Amino acid sequence: MYAARRNQTAESKVFYEVPTLSNTTLLRCLREIQLPFTEEDLMKPTAQSTQYLFERCLDLLMGVHTTQIEEVRDKMLQNVEHPEVHHDMLGMLLLYDRMSKLMLELGFADFNFRDITKPTHDRIVKILSALVNYARFREERLTTFEQISAAGDEIAMKRANLEQIHEETSAKLNQLKEKAKAEEPETKQKEAENEEYGRTLRDQKKNADSIHTQYQELKATQHHLRDEMANAKLTSSIEEESQAATENEATVRRLQAKIDTISAILEEVNACNRLLSDCEEGIKNYETLNRHNAINEEKIGKKELDMQELQNKEQYLTRMLNNLMQKMAKLEQQQEKKRENVQSDMNQAQQEYSQTSSEVSKMQQQMSEIQASAELLDQQINDIKTSLEVDVSNLQSEYDNLKAQFESYLSEMKL
Asked: Is residue 15 classed as helix, strand or coil in its secondary structure?
């Protein structure tokens, strides 16, 4: 049903061959798009029904209401003498101006003023076929346009939500960074203390291992000496036992001294063990702090990844928004250009109307002069007619006198 493109241009505009619809199809389509037109109006179109139909088409397809045309007409008639004379004609001229622009946009090039004032069946069928074709095409594209508009609104809403999420995430990330920055000196101090504890712990552990080794060696020596003393008691005599006892007393004193030394060493080992426990506790705390730091760093990394993803989404949405804004700007420029063209055409039409009004005034003045001349000529004709009637009457009187004289003369001749 849609128009097929024709390779023809006029004034840099492409026109189209529009399929002519049958009367039944045309009336059905007009009812579907809510345009009032009956079969009688189609078969025998009148200027009044056609003008009303064109006004409804302008309202439906261009958003130009009848009141707008009437406002322009009334404004143009304010500075015109005898506006009632030009009222209807100016309204039809404005309607023709709007309709011709609409038909040019539809690719219908030969729309003329007679299609409004003296419409015919064939012409009105062609014009309505073009209008119905465009209305159907516009109805299908309007759904796509509404979907794009709804998608644009949804994208704008998502962008606003993402911006809010981005702001909240940025605030949380800044708080975490500030907290980490504020805790950085304390963390470094804890790390230094933990390193110092670790070194001390390792040194003390080495000392403890050395002391424990010495203790084990002394303990083994003590057991060995006790075994030797037992063997000496069984094999030696009383004298030997007495001498051995004397020697063993010295040995026992040496061993007691070593035992005292070992006890002192054990106390130091216990103190080292307690210190070792404290160091292990410090190491556990350090490891816990490191785990917390690792968790915080992991969270910061995730937040940075989320931030990067949000920034990428924002850039994508910004590009889409810029594209939509560019399309809207182009549409606004086209609308502005159309408005400027319409305003220019209106100014030109107003100038032509002013010129026509001036010419009409001159013609009215000439008609008045011609009418006065005609009245004067009628008066002169009446005067000439009256004069001729008088002359004819005089001639008739003279003729009657001459006739009477002639008859009298003939009578005298007979006598």
From this structure: strand
